[in-house]
Every structure is written in structure tokens, then in C-alpha cells.
Amino acid sequence: MLCPSLAGVMYAFTDWSGIGGFSFTGTENFRTLFDDGRALESVTNTLLLTIAVVVVQNGIGLLLALGVHTGIKSRALLRLIFFAPAVVSPVMVAILWKYVYNPENGAGLNGLLGAVGLGSLRQDWLGDPSLALWSVAAMVVWQYAGYSMVVFLAGLQGVPAELHEAARIDGAGSWQRFRYVTWPLLAPALTINLMLSTIGGLKLFDQVYAATNGGPGTSSETLSTVLYKEAFVYGKFGYSTAVALVLALFVAAVSLVQLRYLRAREVTA
């Protein structure tokens, strides 16, 4: 694992085409990267996609965990249903959602909207540059919200029932018990979920490539799809490894800052 990684760092400073020899070009690849409008747009798309996934996925995951943590009889079945998408291949999920996002009026989501009298909301979900990125975010949230639910559920099961009982006796309502008892004790679960969803969002590739291929145009292009295309479509392996190196350093930096903040929050909570 280390040798290819170190070789990748070296190739980031070359003009290697993937075959044959190469020559060192210094920081030329990095200058090209930061002057490349498509690459810079992909950075913005990656950040927007990550923020959307992290916020919505963990918000829904927490709500699902609170719902199935109650004493309802179907809670075991509901946990299975909500978690099931997380074990499906991301490519299969993207193919499934391409049918859901079928732009025809009578198909998929558009057909459902028409059936309930909301035909005015029909869209070309993956073909509209203003919607494609958010449509991909929705499918990612659908797939992994159940995973976040499981982590939050583990945290909820670790909250002592005695604390809730004591708070109830003191007159605390449901919201107050959640705010002052449950939420602080969920700090470790929140740390895990935020870390995993942030890292996953920053390096998201499968769903984007299978659903939109970065399109329409470059509206849903991410750093991972740029990396792939530069290497395997255009044969610019030196440039693509420079993109990969920047992506790896970016993910590491964001993760370390986030981890430091969340660990500090765990202590104060």
C-alpha cells in the first residue's frame, strides 16, 4: 500500500502518460490544476455535495434512530428496512435511481408527482444542470441514512435509562430530556457519523460517475471524477496523480480539523 502511494506522490511531479517513460515537470501539474476552471468547479461541487450529504444524512439518520428506539413492535423490521440500502453496491443504487429520475412525465418520480396532483414539480432531475448535483446527493442520503441510523442507535442504547427517569421526575419534557440528557451523550456517535459521511462525501465517485458522469456539462463533476477522467480518458496520469494528491491532503486536513473539534466537544459534553 505504501509503495504505490509514494510512487503516486512522485508521479504527481511528472508528465507520465501511464505507459513508457516520463520526465519531471516540477510543480507544473499543480499550477495547471489551480488554473483549470473545470477542476476548480469540481472543488466547489465536491464541497457542496459533502455539506448536503453530511447535514441531511445525519439529520435523517438521527430521526430514524429516535423513531426505531421506541417500543413499537415493528422496530426490528424497520431497522432492517432502513439499513438495507447501505449494503447495496453504490453503482446499483445509481442505476436504480436513474429509473427513479426518469425525465418522462409518466415514469419514476415524475409519474408519482403527476399521480398526486403535483405535476408542476416534474423535472429533468439528472439532465438539469441546476438539479443534477442535488439529485445525486439525494440518492447518497437515501443509501446511507440507515447506516448513520445504526451508529446513532448504538449511542442511544448506551444512554442509561436512569438518567431519563431522573429527568422525568424533575419535570423535564421530551425535548428537554433529549437536549440535556440524550444529545450530550450522543457525542461519540455524532463524531463517528460526521467523520464517515464527510470523508465519503469528499471522495464520492461511484454514484456520480454512474448516474451523471459529471454532467450535464460539468455541473456535477467532483474531484474524484476529474481524477478518473484525466487518468483513464485523457491518459494524463501525471496530472491525475497531482489531483489525487491534492484530494488526499484536502481530505486529511478536513478530517483532522473536524476530529479535533468533535473530540473536544465529546469532553465538554
Automatic annotation (TrEMBL):
<keyword id="KW-1003">Cell membrane</keyword>
<dbReference type="InterPro" id="IPR000515">
    <property type="entry name" value="MetI-like"/>
</dbReference>
<feature type="transmembrane region" description="Helical">
    <location>
        <begin position="47"/>
        <end position="68"/>
    </location>
</feature>
<keyword id="KW-1133">Transmembrane helix</keyword>
<feature type="transmembrane region" description="Helical">
    <location>
        <begin position="237"/>
        <end position="257"/>
    </location>
</feature>
<feature type="transmembrane region" description="Helical">
    <location>
        <begin position="131"/>
        <end position="159"/>
    </location>
</feature>
<keyword id="KW-0813">Transport</keyword>
<dbReference type="Pfam" id="PF00528">
    <property type="entry name" value="BPD_transp_1"/>
</dbReference>
<keyword id="KW-0472">Membrane</keyword>
<dbReference type="InterPro" id="IPR051393">
    <property type="entry name" value="ABC_transporter_permease"/>
</dbReference>
<dbReference type="InterPro" id="IPR035906">
    <property type="entry name" value="MetI-like_sf"/>
</dbReference>
<feature type="domain" description="ABC transmembrane type-1">
    <location>
        <begin position="43"/>
        <end position="258"/>
    </location>
</feature>
<protein>
    <submittedName>
        <fullName>Sugar ABC transporter permease</fullName>
    </submittedName>
</protein>
<keyword id="KW-0812">Transmembrane</keyword>
<feature type="transmembrane region" description="Helical">
    <location>
        <begin position="180"/>
        <end position="199"/>
    </location>
</feature>
<comment type="similarity">
    <text>Belongs to the binding-protein-dependent transport system permease family.</text>
</comment>
<feature type="transmembrane region" description="Helical">
    <location>
        <begin position="80"/>
        <end position="100"/>
    </location>
</feature>
